[in-house]
Amino acid sequence: MKKALLLIDLQKDFCRGGALEVRNSDDVIETANRAIKAFVKNKNLIIATKDWHPAGHKSFAVNSSANIGETGMLNGLPQVWWPVHCVENTPGAEFHDRLNRKNISKIVYKGRDTEVDSYSGFFDNGRKNKTDLNCFLGENEVQELYIMGLATDYCVKYTVMDALKLGYKVWLIEDGCMGVNINPDDSQKAVEEMKKNGVLLINSINLT
Ligand code: VGL
Ligand code: ZN
Predict the structure, then answer these.
(1) Cα dihedral across residues 153, 145, 173, 92: positive or negative
(2) Could you tell me if residue 70 is inside a domain?
(3) Is the pLDDT assigned to residue 55 strictly greater than 90?
(4) Among 50, 155, 157, 177, which one carries the catalytic annotation?
(5) Is 97 a catalytic residue?
(6) Which of 58, 130, 137, 183 is deepest in the core (most CB within 10 A)?
(7) Does pLDDT of 208 surpass 90?
(8) What is the pTM of this model?
(9) Is the complex ipTM higher than 0.95?
């Protein structure tokens, strides 16, 4: 069974000093580098997603006359309003400086349509359009995914849930995720939901 490591949104804007800072997210970069090392050694694929929004993206509170952190509706879908983050081709959308990106063989961009948010690496939140991730995995005969990154309660959760629905065997690298936690227990709840749907948990120290 072919395996791939899937690194979710390890971008500056989600790390220390970023526009949508996730607490303790810098620790996740060290975990990513450890996981990358194991996957390189075993000649398995390494894939990364990037949240990649046009400046006019409607998930940004300023573009929807909304308040940051509140929930509303965007084109018929529930939407959390975010600060401006991960604007395409800006420094905040780049990978964290310490991420060892040399062996990343594929980058999947998501969130490019101004009208819909896209937490999952596979589909937008309305499930109308897909990225090229599932095709890429199929072409490379990958059936088993090891997923980690930012944020546990949004992009990691949505990506894991879609991967499970698409029939992949999915591992969550538990020490490789951190959450936004608008409510303090959001990440904990997200992990419970992923487990209920069949995700398996692994610690990065057991990636050999
Ligand atoms: C994310 C909120 C908005 C994430 C992306 O990567 O989890 N969260 N855009
Ligand atoms: Zn975003």
Answers:
(1) negative
(2) no
(3) yes
(4) 155
(5) no
(6) 137
(7) no
(8) 0.98
(9) yes
Ligand 1 centroid–CA 189 distance in Å is 17
Number of domains in the chain: 1
Whether 51 is in the pocket of ligand 1, judged by its Cβ within 6 Å, is yes
pLDDT, one tens digit per residue, over 88-122 is 999 999 999 999 999 999 999 999 999 999 999 99
> 């990037």: which residue's tokens?
50
Domain containing 28: what range? Answer: 2-55+83-206
Examine residue 118 and state whether it is found in any structural domain, yes or no.
yes
9 is catalytic: yes
Contact criterion met (CB below 8 Å) for 208 and 38: yes
How far is ligand 2, taken at its centre, from the CA of residue 13, in Å? 10
Domain containing residue 169: CATH number: 3.40.50.850
Nearest atom, ligand 1, residue 8 CA:
6
pLDDT in tens, 123-173: 999 999 999 999 999 999 999 999 999 999 999 999 999 999 999 999 999
Mean pLDDT of the chain: 98
Domain membership flag for residue 14: yes
Whether residue 26 lies in the annotated active site: no
Q: Is residue 78 a part of any domain in this protein?
A: no
